[in-house]
Design a protein that fits this description.
The structure is a single chain. Helix content is 87%, strand content 0%. It is mostly helical. The chain has a domain of 33 residues. The radius of gyration is 64 Å and the shape is rod-shaped. It starts with a helix and ends with a helix.
Length: 164
């Protein structure tokens, strides 16, 4: 029998011989080909994904800042509108209070005038009654000599002068 173990070299690197160098060279060539193809693809398309991402993120930041600024401006506008509404409401409330005070004053004045009118009506009724009672006493007690009223006397004397 032949002993094959004795014929093979004892160093494993020597046993593989030139194969590891060939594998390393093939791997290196594949790596160089891959990097070259990526570089050619980027040069051909004219864009790099990293720069596209940076540009896209900057655009997104700019849009976000612009939207934030618009939101801030709208918020300021709403605050101003709200303050104007509050001011107008305060003016309306003040006017309402003034109208209420004027109405209360007018009602009190109307009540006072109504009381005065009622008092005057009572006075007039009293005067009518006293006048009526004076007339009835004149009718009941006829006077012996009734004089003509002053106007009639003046007219009568003027007639006599014109005739005479």
């Amino acid at each position: 029998m032949i002993d094959l173990a004795e014929d093979a070299p004892s160093n494993p690197l020597l046993r593989l011989g030139a194969q590891p160098i060939a594998l390393t060279a093939a791997a290196l060539l594949l790596l160089i080909a891959g990097v070259t193809s990526i570089a050619i693809w980027r040069a051909y398309t004219g864009s790099a994904p990293e720069t596209d991402r940076v540009v896209a993120s900057r655009q997104l930041q700019a849009r976000t800042a612009q939207a934030s600024e618009q939101l801030f401006e709208k918020t300021k506008g709403l605050e101003a509108t709200q303050q104007e509404s509050i001011d107008q409401l305060q003016v309306v409330q003040d006017q309402l209070q003034t109208v209420k005070r004027l109405l209360a004053f007018q009602q009190a004045d109307t009540k006072r005038l109504s009381e005065q009118v009622a008092t005057l009506n009572e006075s007039i009724d009293g005067l009518r009654q006293s006048f009526a009672s004076v007339r009835t006493t004149e009718v009941e007690t006829p006077s012996v000599t009734r004089r003509k009223p002053v106007r009639q006397r003046v007219h009568a004397s003027a007639r006599k002068r014109s005739r005479g």
